[in-house]
Records
---
Amino acid sequence: MKNKILIFGAGTIGVFIGTKLKDAGFDITLKGRKRLDQLNDIIHINDSVQTELPHRADRLDNTKFDVIFVTVKLYDLLPALEEISSRHISYDTLVLTQNGIQTDKILDGSDRKKIVKIAIFEGYTIASKDKILAQDNLRGWQLNESSGSESILEILGKAGIKAEISKNFDTIKAEKMLINCSVSALSIIKDKTIGNLMNDSEDRSVVIKLIDETYSVLCAKYNMRPLDQVRQITIASLEANASHYPSLYQDFKRGEKTELDYFNGQIIQWAKELNIPVHVSEEIYNKAKQILGSNTRS
């Protein structure tokens, strides 16, 4: 019997996952909001042949799924988990794909033995009503070690999604946080793609300073690799996504709430608690905050 899978919060990444899994033969249901409703029934991923979107559902009360991919933004994760619980939507495995670092409190009330976490290093953009752009990255998708990780790895593999299980997932997640903090806010200020930031000597210098400052905070909380190595890996990841706009920039351009406070804002908060100077991070955060106005978490 083919797996019954729900994509809860089917925005850009969710639609990509759902469509790839549907084409691989899985029974897929999409549950999303505004962005999902704006898409055509037939779409393309990059320049591939056209494919049909999976079934879109409004209400899912008292429904059982083998797997639920929760692909909402980090600020919507707790409400999503509460909705899944209150509507009695059951599952064998719950997959979380959020950027940023989740606090343990968010997962209170969830069966942690059933949870698989993924750090996604590839970039995705809804380019139009009938097209999603997927940017390949050498690091692919990184899964934490849990009881359900092997089955999720197999499901992703059948859909042609490059993934692997990481024994150092917390470190990997911190490195993804570092990537987000190094370019997301700056791309809003400069109105540039990642590649355009990296190709401008002045902007590239700021990116490297943001990498170094973010590292100084994260290595006080996580078992990070040496700075030179992390800097090299981060720059390589950024250059692999050169044509991509960060997701935070995309949200800003759509007039949606952003995760600025969950990326740069979180680093600044930790830096204050640890008494670590992060002057460039504060300057970039404040400039981006002014541009975003009330479009960030209060």
---
Amino acid sequence: MRILFAVHGYKPAFRLGGPIVSVSSLAERLVCKGHQVVVFTTNSNLDEDLDVPVDRPIDVNGVEVWYFRREEVLRRWLPFVPYLSRASGFVYAPRMREALDRTVPTVDAVHTHLPFIYPTFAAARAAFRASKPLFYSQRGVFDPARLAFRAWKKRLYIEAIEKPTLRRATTLVALTEAEVQSYRRLAATPTEIVPNGIDVSLYRERPSAAVEGIAPESRVILFLGRIHPTKGADRLLEAFVRVAAAIPDAVLVLAGPDEFGLEVRFREIVAQRNLRGRVLFPGMVTGERKLDLLARADVFCLPSEAEGFSMAVLEALASATPVLLSPGCHFPQAAEAGAGIVVSTEPEAMAQALAGLLGDRDALEEMGRKGRALVSERYGWDAIAERMLEVYQRGIERHRESAA
């Protein structure tokens, strides 16, 4: 099978968040299973451009990847309107359409991986022009809590662009049951659930070296993700302020790219509360540094308003680190397996949960073991890739029957 992926960024564009990890991992696993994957993407890495060849194919771990030079039209022409210009962007790539029209007729399926971006818009229309089956992933973007952020422009775009695309797609691909419900509010297209996966063998249960200068006796709370208004880092900081005095050896690490300039305010709070040295801002962490930080953490916390299926949560569990999640993470399986807890994003509720977790090291170790077992047994990439292939095969057959 030959499959075309369309996505806003591709590895090593890790500043764009979890979808870059999950999309590239799926592509590579499909290639390992004997299939061909062609990726159409941009050279975006959030607030910077990747140093990669553009407008031509290159091999990235066996995957044929086309990085197209992006043009941030809104940022260029409307920098004085932050509502429109301050975002990861539509990532318009003017040379993508021509290449899509040459390539899409040669593939068996087109799979777009995120709404509100030019690569999805262009690839979907190329699929329609070539009468190819379209598989559409939203990755949590249509969750009501996510849509409430900058709602006006999203409502307009959904009505004009996304709804017609959803209704013409062959299959909508959901990560969770919550995504199925959010799709249902927009279209009646057949929908299938395929969660993200993870290669547990890449993660370690103990750090290989000292981490971020943190003392060995410290109890570490880790947030790992984009510092974004919907991710809840502000609420986690409030919760930490409430428990800091009672747990004097607790350290909070807020790791990730500061997309909205929130770190300045966070540092002011830290200074006002005399918590310098106990709240760390390492920025974007990758590679060995990231693996060690995940393994060193005593608790991973993601108090997000809405997630698709967080790769960071899977990475924490694979590192034998218990998780404290919001209901918006849509991952009750962690609590059901005894690998974490789900709690309201209210700072007081999180503070109480953190105090309870950090107060019992033996319980934390047992939760960590259960978390690693959970992702090993249920979320390995081999099984997830097989599920995705079954979805493609059913959709392709349905597309053929409808075209007959």
---
Amino acid sequence: MLEIYSPTGEEEELATFLLEEMERDGFDAKMDGVGNVVGKLGDGKPRLLLCGHMDTVPGFLPVKVLGGEVTGRGAVDAKGPLAAMVMAAKKVANTPLNGTLIVSGVVDEEGSSRGVKELISSGVEAEYAVFGEPSNARNVVIGYKGNVHVSVNVRVKPGHPANPNVKNASEEIIKIWGMIKEKIKPLEEKTPLRSLSCSIESISGGRSRARIDLSLRVPFGMRCKHAVDIVENTVKSSGSEDVKCWLEVADAVEPYESNKHSRLVAAFRKSVKDFFGEEPRLIRKTGTGDMNYYGNHFRRADVVTYGPGDPRLDHTEEERINIHDYLKSIGVLEQVIKRLLL
């Protein structure tokens, strides 16, 4: 999988590889309309979904085995976790299941999460769902902050730049960004999981038009609408007869926190202890994942995130995964499958 370069938007070769592997191992497998690979074993309820993403950030890294580790783009985020899911499912492929096991490799997680949105819209519903992201194999992620992508736009009346009374759209949007930061600053000073934060994704424009794309990380206990309202009110207050300002919301997903007393979490507690000899930490993260979309849509489902790999190596030039932890994570996932479906 690591040797197949698959940055966002170029997942087809890896999807074909996974589809062929699943079919060879006895899965009822298919590729859907957006390029997700979905393989099934068993039938009926309960249903357990193991879902990882095939895409990576850009930048191929050499694939090598060095000192008990494998290097390569996606080793941590998140081909390692996805490969562990496929291998764990393969281990039970010839075992009669009391329910359905669904394994999916999805597209576009590093983009706009088009893959998991397609799973949701096509009705791939499960009572239990595990999303493959690095959690050091010993921990289970039970919560992610929400995320809103917005664009602030400015348009001014054109005029000669030598005229001191002519407004400049790029200057105006920089002023607005400063006002947004001041408005959010008191909310950023709380603990990371309880703070609203805002960062710039891109800036473009010139004298008469300008645009700034922002990412808002929405804390537990806050709704995305509240975060958007803070920015929108700031933008509206910046407008005038000569300066037109408006906000566009590109995408939003609410924070998600799973039930730490669920049967799924209990299965992970026992399985991690079996293989690592210690209780897993149940952690909440400041990022956002496909788990947010799925868990917020299928509210009755138990949803967590799990996988091998050190998340501090996400998107870095040092991306690598420990082989020992990777193999043990396969065992953990196999035991979770058995505890829920046997």
